[in-house]
């Protein structure tokens, strides 16, 4: 329900055309005329004339004669004065939900252009609303969106009241469109917004809410090891909403979901995800079931379950992780030394994980330089994406990365 008077609604309406210069005399929008104001606000022409005259007497509005789009003769058009613009800024916080979007239209050259412009601006504003990080002003034309301001860091900001109102008014399809735009913003502008790991998390968040499940699954599969290492409760929430997973991605997605379940202590969902995984990879499912048993406090049973699969390098790595977490570093070293990596370490998960676990042990024993050296060996054997993960591990272990690394 509107909280504005007719006079105030007229000011909101005319604010849309604040960028029309008073010196302009050709092709001005019809909405700036008395008839245009009346039609837009659904009031009579007489009422429009009376209210506009009252606003002129108060110094909020002025008028002049000019050519109007589609008209053959000149007509009187109305503008907000400087005093009127200041009054608009004063009353804007009083607006109800249905008034907030009233000033988002940017006039085009035709009625069709104006409709398209309204959709573009509304979508841009909606995207800013659903983004969870401040957006550089250059990404969107925020100057054309009145409720958006720019802070001292040149980031676009919108007050929480307006943001909440706009999101609450949006349809499901609009929200999907805005989240889809937000995902693409993170893809195109991640260097301006934050580091690439944050970008991946945020893109997954928006892709899931946009219903772009295949894109979300593809992103997860391409960054599975980074995501496993950085999974958190926020990612867990996104994964809980990710449905209709294509078969080619299901192992990676379920694997990450199980890791996120464990990080968030959601053991019920972890069990359900493990059961789903068993239909696609029984061995991996069994490994994760041992993790679930370990999370429930039964270390011995977890090790027994893994022992039944002994001989598989990934299983031995799992056993090593449990031993490290339990503080049995001696036994962990013995198992790691028994893992044979054929040929040189070539960036496979087995070789890299072995170096990482060895580095963890060295760090726990106070041998920082040895831990650092092992991680550098791992870094030398992986792709650029893998190097990013090693950098994260170095920071998490508080190990200094040299400038030449």
Concise account of the structure shown:
The protein is mainly alpha-helical.
Plain-language structure description:
There is one protein chain. The longest helix is centred in the middle third of the chain and has 22 residues, at 172-193. The chain has helices at 6-15, 34-41, 45-57, 82-91, 97-100, 111-130, 160-169, 172-193, 196-209, 213-222, 224-230, 233-240, 247-263, 267-278, 282-295, 299-307, 313-326, 329-338, 349-364, 368-380, 384-396; strands at residues 61-67, 74-80, 135-136, 148-150, 155-158. With 405 residues, the chain is mainly alpha-helical. The protein starts with 5 loop residues before the first helix and ends in a 9-residue tail after the last helix. The protein has a 3-stranded antiparallel β-sheet. It is built from 21 helices and 5 strands. Among the domains are: 6-101, Arc Repressor Mutant, subunit A (Orthogonal Bundle); 114-171, no CATH class; 341-405, no CATH class.
Topology, pairings included?
Blueprint: H1 6-15, H2 34-41, H3 45-57, E1 61-67, E2 74-80, H4 82-91, H5 97-100, H6 111-130, E3 135-136, E4 148-150, E5 155-158, H7 160-169, H8 172-193, H9 196-209, H10 213-222, H11 224-230, H12 233-240, H13 247-263, H14 267-278, H15 282-295, H16 299-307, H17 313-326, H18 329-338, H19 349-364, H20 368-380, H21 384-396
Antiparallel strand pairs: 1-2, 3-5, 4-5
